[in-house]
C-alpha cells in the first residue's frame, strides 16, 4: 500500500468516526428537530456520488470512507424523514 493510500485511509477513518456520535445520538433519542432535511438529503446524495466515483476510479480509501459514511448519513436521513 502506498503512502498516498495510507493518507487516504487515515482521512477515511477520521471522517467516518466523526459521524458516529451523531448517528448514535439520533438513533438513541429519535430527536431530529435540529437537523435540516435539505442539508441531510444533499449530504447523503453527495456521499453516494463520491462512493460511485470511488468505485469507478477503483480507489479503496474513497470507497471505504464513502461506503461507511453513506450508511451513517442515510440512516440519519431516514430518521429525519420518519421523526421529522
UniProtKB/TrEMBL annotation:
Transmembrane segments: 6-24, 36-56, 62-79
Subcellular locations according to the entry: Membrane
GO molecular function: sugar transmembrane transporter activity
GO cellular component, one term: membrane
Membrane-protein topology: Multi-pass membrane protein
Keywords: Membrane, Sugar transport, Transmembrane, Transmembrane helix, Transport
UniProt superkingdom: Bacteria
Coiled-coil intervals, chain numbering: none
Pfam families: PQ-loop (PF04193)
Transport listed as a keyword: yes
Major subcellular site: membrane
Protein's UniProt name: SemiSWEET family sugar transporter
Amino acid at each position: 500500500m502506498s503512502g498516498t493510500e495510507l493518507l487516504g485511509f487515515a482521512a477515511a477513518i477520521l471522517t467516518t468516526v466523526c459521524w458516529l456520535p451523531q448517528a448514535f445520538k439520533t438513533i438513541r433519542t429519535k430527536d431530529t428537530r435540529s437537523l435540516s432535511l435539505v442539508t441531510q438529503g444533499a449530504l447523503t446524495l453527495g456521499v453516494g456520488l463520491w462512493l460511485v466515483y470511488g468505485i469507478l476510479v477503483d480507489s479503496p480509501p474513497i470507497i471505504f470512507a464513502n461506503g461507511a459514511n453513506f450508511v451513517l448519513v442515510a440512516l440519519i436521513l431516514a430518521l429525519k424523514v420518519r421523526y421529522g
